[in-house]
């Protein structure tokens, strides 16, 4: 997971510059599997990212939320859609400040 770690480390460095920003970490899954299982998995993904941020010194107010297969950032209609390069690293993380959301890049 070197790409994921680099993305998360960039988020850590950025968020440390904006400690007043309120963070909602959002987790997602592809469209396979049972809805309830996908919700649990996506919540776990979001919590894992949130814990990484905290463990690396991010002090922002944070929450984690799982969305299952709702609102994916990639097309889940094809076999390679969920595995598009960069999708898994960025789909579990969103920054929220005053109601606006920007996916991590």
Structure description:
This protein has 105 residues and is an alpha+beta fold. It has three helices and four strands. The protein has a single domain, classed as 2-Layer Sandwich (60s Ribosomal Protein L30, Chain: A), CATH 3.30.1330.60. Helix content is 39%, strand content 17%. The chain is elongated, with a radius of gyration of 13 Å.
Within the CATH hierarchy, at the fold level, what is the topology? 60s Ribosomal Protein L30, Chain: A
User: Which descriptor suits the 3D outline?
Assistant: elongated
By CATH, the architecture is named 2-Layer Sandwich
Quickly count the helices. 3
Strand content: 15-25%
Query: What characterizes the major β-sheet?
Result: 2 strands, parallel
The CATH superfamily title: OmpA-like domain
Spatial strand order of the main sheet: 1-2
Task: Please state the average pLDDT score.
Answer: 76
C-alpha Rg (nearest Å): 13 Å
């Amino acid at each position: 997971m070197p790409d994921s770690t680099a993305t998360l480390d960039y988020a850590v460095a950025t968020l440390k510059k904006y400690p007043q920003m309120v963070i909602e970490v959002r987790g997602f899954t592809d469209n396979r599997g049972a809805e309830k299982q996908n919700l649990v998995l996506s919540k776990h993904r979001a919590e894992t990212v949130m814990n990484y941020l905290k463990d690396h010194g991010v002090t922002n107010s944070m929450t984690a939320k799982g969305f299952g297969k709702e609102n994916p950032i990639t097309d889940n209609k094809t076999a390679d859609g969920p595995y598009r390069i960069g999708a898994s690293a960025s789909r579990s993380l969103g920054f929220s400040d005053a109601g606006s959301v920007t996916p991590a890049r």
